[in-house]
Design brief:
heterodimer; A: 299 residues; alpha+beta; 2 domains; 6 helices; elongated; B: 550 residues; mainly alpha; Cytochrome C Oxidase, Chain A; binds protoporphyrin IX containing FE
Chain lengths: 299, 550
């Protein structure tokens, strides 16, 4: 390799690195707000992988276009290219570098995973140090433990129970900056508990109770969606999540506890009722949605 | 000794004309006829499932579920995915394997020609069952192509013959067909290579086909077992997977993914093979690192069997298992990366000719790199947790299934069209087809990635208005992809009828299939070739065989 080539290659590499870094930074804007401690860890990891990925993608694409532009055969040129069959050194390099790269990505992913403390259901509930670790990165200091909330899913409704206060609701309320402990249950089929703004997701297996935790850090309204296909009204199985200050949360709980249970609106049930009334319904027979739930609180 | 009455009988019959079209509707045992039967049948189902996709994208162009009833959307997306996999991708690749493998290895036919024909004729049955299931009360299966219980066995009509029943039946038949095909292909490759064709003189396509078919042999029994158990749950009231009666629904997920992840490699490996055949021809250079490319296919076969749990990162999988499968999944990137770099090495500094097949090859390569990068992201457990079951996944796997596999298949069809038909296709129409397809793919499938990151779940007939923008773009891209098949069909039909005569080897390609006439005679080779060189001797001026030149 002569000097000129090294300089060109170096310049291209630098340029690609710059573009990749920029796209990596841009990737933060592709997500919903970072409403949980997990989301911050998540977006950092995603940004890193986006940067690496952009570099590889641009590198390969550039190589292809370089050859398309400079090595196209003329129309009547029937000659062959140089009969190069391989290059052991190159092949070793392009085996070793990806290998090291994926090992590095696996290690970093594992660390993030560990910090997020996303437990699988068969693991022991929690290890306090790890909770702190997830927290440390957010710059927050107080971690208080919160009572458990039971999440009941069925075709096609979410019901949240606060057993200590004897409150049921179709809206999930959570105090900000506290580790939320949920017990996920399903009455019928597999559902998925998914709040995009929190970057967390867990399948809910019927006949099992799955412990799930995460830490909301930003007050606001978010969406909870069913993420594991559950039949006809799957797309309508959503709920609102409200993250609020401890004081607001306590007030809400008190108020809700005093209300007598009423019928909550339920999209699946009402769509189904409408469909049954129309005799010209175009659809096929479906599993009948569970009746709209009776809860102390609904929006 | 009896006297010979008719001297004509002594002259061996060598039909120089292509087989009569009626032969394609018969129980032919000629691997070339069967190959084309597979490709045609599969393409028909591709169009059917493609029309389903157009209707789905029509529904998804607005947030409300206004075009279709939700049950109809669910039936359509289920059958779209199912038919695309069991009616299009598997069969079309079986078609390529059937047509090309005996020609490439210098054999006169497959090892078991009748088994071959029987395996093929199950495919129309499978596809027609899928389509007919729209007509039974309650409609087709509405459980997605994973058919996870308990949802898949809910059976709201209560009928014995319901959409899910037909779905399971058809998938089981398709499995039997695939096992028969796999046995045949693996045997053919191992036993029937021409004299002199050692493993490292065997073309890369043949290597990849073998690697893929070995997966069918170890994987399909698991799927078939899972499907039969599910059928029993659905029909006979057993409770293998019913949690209410002590069954375990997650067990089905294991059965399903133990096969269906490796199945992805069954689909993509032969396409890697097509790339490896095409790049040397149109770059006029040997396949870079041919031996390593060949072996990496086998490594993928082995590793591919050890990664299935990455589909279940969010299904209640214990932490240690998540991490283990993250590691194995990432490892697969290494042999795959070797292939990508080898292809780039192949075209590097060559004499490139951008015929339609090469355009589809290069386009497929770039799309595959994109898909591979999102794939690495997904293998990282924490990343997957958020995007699992969102449109990010739909974007990722369509970049594999459409951007890579369909592109590779188109590349292969254009490349071997002169061999199969004896005629050339029209380059202009071919290029138009490529550009429409490439742009359509990007417009359709790139927007699915941001949608997934924003949190739009897959398998939804309606969505929140915040997702509308990207969905409109995706739908427009889908309609463009629909349009892009028009120049392709026009090209194929008109070229087959009135294209320029191709001659034996219009691309000046190296390979046994290019040494025989186009289309090849019934027996392929009058004399079995004796191979003396490696398969990609571009620029080396050496003969490929001892007796037939090349
Ligand atoms: C014009 C081309 C295509 C379009 C517009 C298209 C569109 C879609 C859409 C929108 C979905 C998501 C459905 C949902 O989650 O609600 C989907 C799912 C799927 N598609 Fe395609 N697709 C196309 C081509 C293909 C091809 C060529 C293949 C395979 C070779 C394929 C295989 C699948 C599979 C396996 C699914 C998953 C089905 C499921 O979730 O069970 N698609 N497609």
């Amino acid at each position: 390799m002569n000097i000129k080539r090294i300089i060109t290659l170096g310049a291209i590499t630098l340029f690609l690195a710059g573009v990749s870094f920029w796209i990596g930074q841009l990737s933060y804007s592709w997500f919903p707000p970072q409403a949980s401690a997990e989301a911050i860890l998540y977006d950092d990891l995603f940004s890193l992988l986006t940067g690496i990925g952009t570099f590889i993608f641009l590198g390969v694409t550039l190589a292809v276009f370089y050859n398309i532009i400079f090595y196209q055969a003329g129309r009547y040129n029937t000659s062959d290219g140089p009969p190069i069959e391989g290059n052991i050194k190159l092949e070793i390099i392009w085996t070793a570098i990806p290998l090291l790269l994926v090992i590095a990505i696996a290690v970093i992913s594992y660390q993030t995973y560990d910090q997020m403390d996303l437990h699988g259901p068969t693991e022991i509930a929690h290890l306090p140090q790890m909770m702190d670790a997830a927290y440390a990165d957010t710059g927050q200091s107080t971690v208080e433990s919160m009572t458990e909330i039971e999440v009941d899913s069925q075709q096609w409704a979410w019901i949240f129970r606060y057993p200590d206060q004897n409150v049921t609701s179709t809206e999930l309320h959570l105090p900000v900056n506290q580790r939320a402990h949920l017990k996920l249950r399903s009455k019928d089929v597999i559902h998925g508990f998914y709040i995009p703004a929190f970057r967390v997701k867990q399948d809910i297996i019927p006949a099992k109770t799955i412990d799930f935790e995460f830490t909301p850090i930003l007050e606001g309204n978010y969406r909870l969606r069913d993420s594991q296909y559950s039949g006809t009204y799957f797309a309508a199985m959503q709920a609102d999540v409200v993250v609020e200050s401890q004081a607001d949360y306590d007030r809400w709980l008190k108020k809700a506890a005093k209300q007598i249970p009423t019928l909550a609106p339920n999209q699946a049930a009402s769509e189904y009722a409408r469909r049954e009334q129309k005799s010209d319904s175009a659809g096929w027979k479906t599993v009948v949605p569970a009746p709209a739930p009776m809860v102390n609180y609904h929006p | 000794m009896t006297t010979i009455t008719n001297p004509q009988e002594l002259i061996p019959e060598t039909p120089k004309t292509p087989p009569d079209w009626r032969q394609y509707f018969s129980f032919s045992t000629d691997h070339k006829v069967i190959g084309i039967q597979y490709i045609f049948t599969a393409f028909f189902f591709f169009l059917v499932a493609g029309i389903f996709a157009m209707i789905m994208r029509g529904e998804l162009i607005t947030p409300e579920p206004d075009l279709l009833d939700r049950t109809v959307y669910n039936g359509l997306y289920t059958m779209h995915g199912t038919i695309m996999i069991f009616g299009w991708t598997f069969p079309v690749l079986s078609g390529f394997a059937n047509y090309l493998v005996p020609l490439m290895i210098g054999a006169r036919d497959m090892a078991f020609p009748r088994l071959n024909a029987a395996a093929f004729w199950m495919i129309p049955v499978v596809g027609i069952l899928f389509i007919l299931s729209f007509l039974v009360p309650g409609g087709p299966s509405q459980a997605g192509w994973w058919a996870y219980p308990p949802q898949s066995v809910q059976n709201p009509t209560g009928n014995l013959v319901n959409g899910q029943f037909i779905w399971l039946l058809a998938v089981a038949i398709s499995g039997v067909s695939s096992i028969m095909g796999a046995l045949n292909i693996v045997t053919t490759i191992i036993r029937m290579r021409a004299p002199g064709m050692g493993w490292f003189k065997t073309p890369a396509f043949v290597w990849t086909v073998m690697a893929a078919q070995i997966i069918q042999l170890y994987g399909l029994p698991a799927l078939t077992a899972g499907v039969v158990m599910l059928l029993c749950d659905l029909t006979f009231g057993t409770a293998f997977f019913d949690p209410a009666q002590g069954g375990n629904p997650v067990l089905f997920e294991h059965f399903f993914w133990f096969y269906s992840h490796p199945a992805v490699y069954v689909m993509v490996l032969p396409v890697f093979g097509i790339f490896s055949e095409i790049f040397p021809v149109y770059a006029r250079k040997p396949l870079f690192g041919y031996k390593v490319v060949a072996i990496s296919s086998i490594i993928i076969t082995v590793l591919g069997g050890l990664v299935w749990v990455h589909h279940m990162f969010a299904s209640g999988t214990p932490g240690w298992m998540r991490v283990l499968f993250m590691a194995s999944t990432m490892l697969i990137a290494v042999p795959t990366g070797i292939k990508v770099f080898a292809w780039v090495g192949t075209i590097w500094g060559g004499k490139l000719r951008l015929d339609t097949s090469m355009l589809f090859g290069l386009g497929g390569l770039i799309n595959f790199v994109f898909a591979g990068i999102t794939g690495i992201m997904l293998s990282s457990v924490p990343i997957d947790i958020h995007v699992n079951n969102t449109y990010f996944i739909v974007g990722h796997f369509h970049y594999v299934l459409y951007g890579t596999i369909v592109f590779g298949i188109y590349a292969g069809i254009y490349h071997w069209f002169p061999k199969m038909t004896g005629r050339m296709y029209y380059e202009g129409l071919g290029k138009l087809h490529f550009y429409l397809t490439f742009i359509g793919t990007a417009l359709n499938f790139v927007p699915m990635h941001p949608l997934g990151l924003m949190g739009m779940p897959r398998r939804v007939a309606s969505y929140d208005p915040e997702f509308a923008f990207w969905n409109v773009i995706a739908s427009l891209g889908a309609f463009l992809l629909g349009v892009s098949t028009v120049p392709f069909l026009l090209n194929m039909v008109s070229s087959w009828i009135s294209g320029k005569k191709a001659g034996d080897n219009p691309w000046r390609a190296i390979g046994l299939e290019w040494l025989v006439s186009s289309p090849p005679d019934h027996e392929n080779f009058e004399e079995i070739p004796v191979v003396i060189a490696e398969p990609y001797g571009y620029g080396k001026d050496e003969p490929l065989t001892e007796n037939m030149g090349g």
